[in-house]
Write the structure tokens for this entry.
Amino acid sequence: MNTADSFSLFVNQFSRDLSDINDRLALIGILYLGKKSFESFRNLSRAIGHYLIPNLVSNEKWIKSLGNWAVVFGCLNQIGYGYARELAKRKINLILIDQNQEILTQMCEIISSDFQIEVIPIIIDPRNFGSLIPLEKTIIGRDIGIFVNSSCFNQECSYYHALSKNLIENTLCSNVTVFSLIIRMLLPSMFQKNKGALVNFSTKRSFLSSPYVSLFGASNLYTEKLIESLSYEYSDKNLYFQTINTGFLDDENLNFKNEVKLSRNLALYSSSTIQTLGWSSYSFGYWLNALKVHLLLRNFPLSCINFVYSRILKRKFMKSIENIASKNK
């Protein structure tokens, strides 16, 4: 066989191999494109189901059918207060639970005056479980249909070793123990009548590393896990469990300062979150908030996001130390 024939044979063989490789690469490309198309379709259908349809189909009748009373725990922030007002708009009577008697009483008067419903304040001390006895007595004979937990927004940036024992005890008692005990109080009646809804607000600290606020991040994760587990535990009952993650809302400005006043943006957010009740078990409340989280988590590794977020928290923490030091001079 001469050189020309050998080279021609080599070219033909190489062409056949290259054709096989091209076919395989094309198949891989088709599979990858199919996978991405399926993911895009799934995300789009989920977004439509979670945020578009709830805006078109009202859930007001369904919410009223659950019961004419709702319990809101942790309402001394704009998230809990905004959700309580949305329930009041639907003529659901309220039992509001928190620690500050002055602000809570003022809040009850405002809601009762604005919506002509019955509002009962319950003042508790998270470290004194006996303070839950008035709540236990109050719910007797009342048709409680909804429980809302919004107690996870109080925070204090600090090194963990510098936290006071009282703060650790108060945080765990409020965000873990009292939260769990209230659910334990309300579930029997919901279980018996075979309907009810439990709504839990959480923050981005449940899925991001949270230095300097690690205790709050851990308690956020506990509330999410409990709600998720209960949803499977009571799956054969007509009970609805939902976690609403506030995502990248500015949770530093959620607490009331001088007066009980709901900002325009959070009023819109509260209106959107209550519309998702009955449609999704895990929601970010508002479509734009969900889009931000989706784009961030889809386009950047979680380790990279945690690194950047931890640096942001560290900068805020150092700035707060500098401010405290300047005030003490």
Remarks:
- The chain is about 60% helix and 10% strand.
- The longest strand covers residues 196-202.
- The two ends are 96 Å apart (CA to CA).
- Residues 103 and 258 are 10 Å apart (CA to CA).
